[in-house]
Amino acid sequence: MSASCQRPRIYQLFVRLFGNTHETRKPHGTLAENGAGRFADIDDRALGSLRGLGFTHVWLHGVLRQATATDWSFIGLPPDDPDLLKGLAGSPYAVRDCFDVCPDLAVDPARRLDEFRSLVARVHAHGMRVLVDFVPNHVARSHRSVVRPGMSFGDHDDPSRFFAPDNNFYYLPGTGPLRLPTFRDGVPSGPRCDGLFEPERVHGRVTGNNVVSWTPGAGDWYETVKLNYGHDFTGGRDGPREFPTAEHPAKPIPDTWNKMDAVLAHWQALGVDGFRCDMAHWIPVEFWKWAIDRARSRGADAMFVGEAYDDDPNKLVEGNVLVALVAAGFDAVYDHQSYQVLKGIYDGPKWANDLDAVLGAVAPLHGSVRYSENHDEVRLASAGHWGGAGARVGCPVTALLFGIGRGPALLYNGQEVGEPAAEPSGFGGGGGRTSIFDYGSMPEFAKWVNGLRYDGGRLSEAQRGLRAWYGRLTKMSGEPAFASGEFLPLNGANVGNPAYGRLPGETAGGHWLYTYFRHDANGGQTILVVVNLNPRETMSGIRVRFTPGALAALGALEGDGEREIQFRDLLADDHPSTARGKASTLRASGLELPPLPPLTAWYLEKSDATWPTS
Predict the structure, then answer these.
(1) Which fold has domain 483-610?
(2) Where exactly are the structural domains of the chain?
(3) At residue 568, what are phi and psi to the nearest 5 degrees?
(4) For the whole prediction, is pTM greater than 0.70?
């Protein structure tokens, strides 16, 4: 089966850090001091290992050319004004050229696009597909394309108008100069670090996070400027909409739409198979329908994954924006709600039962990408988060999330070896997040990279076991029950069940225990997912009661015969846990499980056997 036909399993690979063998990790270190991973570092050994873990897609994260303090003047790319920067390397979401890649990532910076194209070919040779970032909402204040100079945003704008349908940017009313916060923290700043950006002394522009101010705050996306899709956002989602809609299909296509279509076409021509779309819910869904249709006219399998949050007041639809984006053509959107519930179990006061409301009403069940880490979220192994339970907390959390729906499963580089992000890097890093703004490396992940051997030669035994476990999970989450099966939740049927993982003092089941079936009627595969999220307590004497739908999936309804139904864990490398029960017993009182250790997940596959007659 080709990767395009499988359930997508995405490995998020931050190129700047992935293959970096420099381990100085000096806070605020320069490229020369701390180094950076390169396209060439992601070689056949690295890609073969990722494919061996079961991944079908590689998200090459952070490859677009961003604003940076690093001087590439010898190839015509001078450094940015330091007032525009968050970190010396720069934010991968402050894109300076939407058609270019970062020269930090190339052996020969002048041939950086050729080196990127070669990496794409290597990924394809290993049977995987390539995603890159598509950042439609904003660009760096210093944006200017050298690859496609005729496609630079803002060249033909009328800066005297806050909003005009064919302007690429929104321009601040009144007069400047624009004053920016600066983050130096002991970094040599140079003479230009004065809080001013010279090109915006007269015509200032709105920040990427919709702040209409000549003095944006330190928490704003002040280093970026918002792009205009023909919608005046100051009027909310009902503000003027000067683009084709169902009510007004003859309105002209805004200039920003055409330029963004050219961006997508450019990367598709370089062999890119799909896009992780940043802040997709801030962009009109009419644009997405138009742009995705055009992208799929160039490549029918073009994949679109949207970062989107339905609880964001800036979303551009009245109802559920996640559902609207899937209807517009997205393959999947972020399921941040489920992630938040699971993290809230450890931070308090959430219960596992709270997942049912989220999965039933908020996120598209089978149109969601599920993750337990990404570059925006804290590391599972961080001592200050997830109850301080350590890297093993990722096992039940990730297994639970990966098993829920048919949409993509996403794993962030370093998660598989328990990267804790404990060290500050400069502007970012520490506090549980790996910095995307600074030069550096991931200390635990570097033990797997091991001087570009990619053999895990410096990992501990526990880390090697964890990585192997994630490999088994990734492969199993592509089984037919997960790729095409139905989701049958069981917690609701067990809230009043005293044998459902209740701990002392609890009067209901479903605080730390979560169970559900995935059932593929066509392929005949049924898997019972069982997770103990508790970091300390073994759960003994568990008996899971089944809903009528679950009993039908098991073939345990009245009239289905008297069989022994057996279950065997697919995630274990040896000595898998098992359970069994007679059909009549499952109907009457449910399935008894063996003791379930802390932070454990089972994918119990059902099989049938004849029950011996007495």
Answers:
(1) Immunoglobulin-like (2.60.40)
(2) 483-610
(3) -140, 130
(4) yes
